[in-house]
Amino acid sequence: MLRYFTAGESHGEALVAFLSGVPAGLKIDQAFVDRELWRRQQGYGRGGRMKIERDTAHILSGVRHGSTIGSPISLQLENRDWKNWQESLPVGDGDPARHKRVASPRPGHADLAGALKYNLPEARYILERASARESAARVAVGAIAKLFLRELGIDVLSHVVATGSVTLPGEVSWESIRALYDRDEVLLNCADAEVEQLMKDDVDKVLKTGDSLGGVFEVVAHNVPPGLGTYAQWDERLDGLLAAAVMSLQAVKAVEIGSGVAAAFMSGSRVHDEIGYTAKSGFTSFSRTHNNAGGVEGGISNGEEIRVRGYLKPISTLRRPLQSVDFSTREPVKAAYERSDVCVVPAAGVAAEAMVALTLARCALEKFGGDSMTETVRNFNGYLQQLKTY
Ligand SMILES: Cc1cc2nc3c(=O)[nH]c(=O)nc-3n(C[C@H](O)[C@H](O)[C@H](O)COP(=O)(O)O)c2cc1C
Fold first, then answer.
1. From the CB of 251, is ligand 1 less than 6 Å away?
2. Whose CA is nearest to atom 11 of ligand 1?
3. Which atom of ligand 1 is nearest to the CA of 130?
4. Counting atoms of ligand 1 from 1, which one is nearest the CA of 127?
5. Is 250 in the pocket of ligand 1 (CB under 6 A)?
6. What angle in degrees, to the nearest 10, is found between the helix axes of 345-368 and 238-247?
7. Can you tell me the distance from the alpha carbon of 245 to that of 250, in angstroms, rounded to the nearest whole number?
8. pTM above 0.90, yes or no
9. Residue 77, φ and ψ in degrees, nearest 5
10. pLDDT digits over 115-159, tens only?
11. Ligand 1: which of 131, 158, 339 to mutate, judged by most atoms within 8 Å of the beta carbon?
12. How far is Cα 24 from Cα 62, in angstroms, rounded to an integer?
């Protein structure tokens, strides 16, 4: 079973991630893993921290001579900023005078709910773990899941559909999303240059006014065969697993599969993807007129591209802070401000790619099994053959 965990605080010494259940014999391309980490750090509207950090995954176990060996993989991402925080966040007792309190909780962040839950007098330790810095660890293990999926011919990427009030209409092709991935400079990861410029203008506006923006990203999983996930039990449905995986990302407040939201307001005859049978198709000879289902029917992948959208609320740390209350005096004050991103939709898309890849890798391993890549790929190819002759 593919399982993963992360540990580490935003300004602690390092993030750590564990990934267990990867078959032996998977080649690990370190440059690919680090490029995924770089992609998560990009995007117009990020805070200053992204400039001081260039993440790299230091693999500690489970990989030898460049390939997985079937043992749990553990890896570490150093926090370059740790040197500035050692005295404020020591593991030992340290000097309480050096502590950096978060004196007033930010509406929309985990500060108040977390401080109440963990019975802490202020929010420093809350934001340290609630922060999306954690998503870097997910991206690192997600990159390994992507390398696994590539061996089955599956690719997972994302693009930005909306930021604030600017939306890109229509469906974006896999080829355009792939072209975005090849860029060495990431602005808003939008497939349309004019719309991307409007998005940038929107971010500029909030940068000036001390406000923030949310938006929508879409993750696309390309070349996924029919048959991953099942309706047999509620917690084995692929749509449910994808929704939970993407929703678990910081600031994602809604998840949509295919045209799920619009479909609720349209008649069935316009929504459902009519079925045909042609000689030229992919995994099977069945074809569809469109892909409103987003590649999942009955909790099972149906052979079309899987399309999952994540809706992000605006960042809650505002340079012009909202009203809050001082933790110690209970007097009204402005919410705390600490260097922050103002728009993170492209980066959230990259983190969501990792979550989708980990979900698909888990479902693929459940279906095809295998303790070595040779065994997994053999089982996979046998299944593809079965589909061809269906
Ligand atoms: C890639 C990424 C970067 C983020 N950066 C920030 C940030 O700089 N400042 C901030 O207040 N929130 C940031 N967030 C959002 C918070 O982490 C999130 O709102 C907070 O943990 C509370 O969780 P919730 O929004 O899911 O309720 C970021 C989210 C993502 C996905």
1. yes
2. 317
3. 21
4. 21
5. yes
6. 150
7. 11
8. yes
9. -115, 115
10. 999 999 999 999 999 999 999 999 999 999 999 999 999 999 999
11. 131
12. 9
